[in-house]
Amino acid sequence: MGLTQERLAEMLEVSRQSVSKWELGQAIPDVDKVVRMSELFGVSTDAILTGREEEADGENKNPLHLGSIYLVVKDFEKSVDFYEKFLGVTIDNRCRSGNKFVEFYIDGKCISLMNESNLIGHCTDPDSPYKFVQNYWVEDLVTEYERVKSLNIGSVTEIRQAHPAYHYFHLTDPDNNVIEVTGGYHPEGEK
After folding, report:
1. Which of 7, 30, 69, 139 has its CA 20 to 30 A from that of 182?
2. Residue 97 — left, alpha, or beta (φ > 0 → left; ψ -120 to 50 → alpha)?
3. CA-to-CA distance for 139 and 63, rounded, in angstroms?
4. Is the separation of the CB atoms in 110 and 104 below 8 Å?
5. 101 with 112: CB under 8 angstroms?
6. What are 18-28's pLDDT values in tens digits?
7. In 4-140, which residue ranges form alpha helices assigned H by DSSP?
8. Which strands, in side-by-side order, build the sheet including 132-138?
9. In which residue ranges of the chain is pLDDT below 50?
10. What DSSP designation does 138 have?
11. Claim: this prediction has a pTM higher than 0.90
């Protein structure tokens, strides 16, 4: 999902070192953390513990995984208050700077409120009437980028970098809605 160890640690209220130890197989997360990761990533607890996802009838799984739905909002704090009340939940995660985005998790899926004034050039043009962005993640961003470009189904940006651990590209649908694809980024020759 394009999460850094630090960001996942914040979301699970553990140290970054704990996440690192889990990834290296040096420690096993507590049951409540496994359940939370299962909800965050939309996979079974078995997939978290064993690293193997279940295959349905041996079919190939789609490489795209729904990451988030972004709502790009003008009045950020008013919108945060509105959605906390409407959804009946508090924020699960807030950007460190405090006013770029917040995340709510509902049924294991993420809804993010993105502060329009802090996202110039990232998700949408501030003058655009489109304020809804679908976010997907893939294991191999470069491969998915080449696949989507070859489909010739809409305008595709180059792969961009939001920060060192987050790369993405945008595709627009026939109505100019933005689809953001992010994931594991390994430029040619790097693995």
Report:
1. 30
2. alpha
3. 7
4. yes
5. yes
6. 888 888 778 88
7. 5-12, 16-24, 31-41, 45-50, 76-87
8. 93-94, 101-106, 109-115, 65-73, 132-138, 178-183, 166-172, 160-163
9. 56-58, 191
10. E
11. no
